[in-house]
Amino acid sequence: MAAAFSCPVFFPSTFSYNGNRYHGRIKIKINATSSTKVKTLNEIAGAGKGSSSLATSTEIGHLSQEQIRQRIPTKKQLVDPYRQGLIIERGVGYRQTVVVRSYEVGPYKTATLESLLNLFQETALNHVWMSGLLSNGFGATHGMVRNNLIWVVSRMQVQVDHYPIWGEVLEIDTWVGASGKNGMRRDWLIRSQATGITYARATSTWVMMNEKTRRLSKMPEEVRDEISPWFIDKRAINEDVPEKIVKLDDNARYVNSDLKPKRSDLDMNHHVNNVKYVRWMLETIPDKFLESYQLSGIVLEYRRECGSSDRVQSLCQPDEDETLTNGVEQSLLKNMVLTSGIMEGNGYLGPMDVKSYGYTHLLQIKGDSKNEEIVRGRTRWRKTLSTLPYSS
């Protein structure tokens, strides 16, 4: 005789009423018996109107073991219960709910910039995943794989108003748009699910590279036909004129020449992941400065790839016109003799605390005859703020 049972299932919900945002959970009670076949969440989500299953039994016969294990959708999905993702923006944008994990925060229990960049990358890939266009590449569509093409980022800008804290639930929105004739723009917004406050926003530009020749490529028409229906004319950051980043030389104040890529730094495209570059940049900034200041913005201009055999040098230069010393004018500071404390990167001159709010960065490959640029960067900093912002 079959035994009867009931099981409550909760789903997170966000809705608006009279201009206010409310967050809660929808409770669904499932009644069944021990002989009832219980469907997975993916099967439940796929049963909705407009959704499709991952693959039919006929299609499974033509899939590789890797494809079966990954369960890459062959058609557009509206809901992804495994990744807490859903399609928004009239069917072309993507929103994912994430929880800040313990390994994503730093000493102050706030998410690091590197963690935010990793979340940007992951949600972008999941967006392509749900579109049904993902092939076996790192975010590459079927048309890109047929033409031996991969995505490479050429520029990224991030603005951070508040850093999420450990255990906080976040909503990350991402969408794509056109960038010139052969590029694609991808934007992100990160907000607190509890308060609705936007914590960070980012925009990036991507171009295509031939995986075999490692040269930039024009966008084939079949790829344009794949991705253009997903384009949205909206920007997370309004930037009329892109900020120009000057090139540093060996006279930069802070230099780290002891950088060597590890095998663990390589991604699926067999080059150093762009998130690793940011870590190298920030580690060149003096520790004394990082104790009191937090990054509020970064602009990156990518120039070339970096492989596991390359020797990398990180250069870092503070903005002279933004350096103050407890009320002492910069002109006076220039006439003073800097002690070894500053030269060694300790960030102080006797009893005076040197506070810099802007840095220019350069990562380059050290060659026998010449150095080659990997990425230029600009970072903006402010005094460390409270980690718990609330709306008034």
TrEMBL record:
Entry EC no(s): 3.1.2.-
Functional note: Plays an essential role in chain termination during de novo fatty acid synthesis.
Domain Acyl-ACP thioesterase-like C-terminal: 253-331
Main location: plastid
GO molecular function: acyl carrier activity; fatty acyl-[ACP] hydrolase activity
UniProt key word Kinase: no
SUPFAM superfamilies reported for this sequence: Thioesterase/thiol ester dehydrase-isomerase
Assigned GO CC terms: chloroplast
Organism: Gossypium anomalum
Record keywords: Chloroplast, Fatty acid biosynthesis, Fatty acid metabolism, Hydrolase, Lipid biosynthesis, Lipid metabolism, Plastid, Transit peptide
Residue intervals of the Acyl-ACP thioesterase N-terminal hotdog domain: 93-227
Compartments, record wording: Plastid, Chloroplast
Name under which the protein is recorded: Acyl-[acyl-carrier-protein] hydrolase
Family named by the database record: Belongs to the acyl-ACP thioesterase family.
